[in-house]
C-alpha cells in the first residue's frame, strides 16, 4: 500500500473513533477514576476503569478535545480491556515509544487501530493529545497498585 493510501486509511480510522467513540460514558458504582487535562490545547478526559480478578474488566471515558485525543481514548479503552494492569502499562510504554518515533515491540501486542496514531510522531505538538488517555490510565493503575 502506498504511503498516501496508508495515511488516508489511518486518518479514516482516527476519524471513525472520534465520531463513533467506543466506551464513551461512565460506569455506575465504584471505579478507578482519573481526571486529566492538557492545558496546552484544552483536551480533558475523565477515565474510569474497573479492575476485577487482577484484570481490567472495562474502561470508559468522557471528555472534550481534539480528534486525536478522543480517538486515542477510544482506542485505548478497547485495547486494555481484559489485560492485567502490568500488561496495560507495558502496552502504554510501547505506545509511548511509538509516539516518540522510537522502535517498538510490534510483536508483543496487536495494536490494531492504535497504529493509526503513529503518524502523530511527526507532529510533536500533538503527541500530548494522543497520550493524554494513556497517561490517565497509567496514573489510575499506579494509584490502584499503591493503595
UniProtKB/TrEMBL annotation:
Q: Name one GO biological process term.
A: iron-sulfur cluster assembly
**Which interval of the chain is the signal sequence?**
none
NIF system FeS cluster assembly NifU N-terminal domain spans which residues? Answer: 10-129
Q: Name one Pfam family in it.
A: NifU_N
A Gene Ontology molecular function term of the record: iron ion binding
Top-level taxon of origin? Bacteria
Which family does the UniProt entry place this protein in? Belongs to the NifU family.
Q: What protein name applies here? A: SUF system NifU family Fe-S cluster assembly protein
Q: What is the lineage of its organism?
A: Bacteria, Bacillati, Bacillota, Bacilli, Bacillales
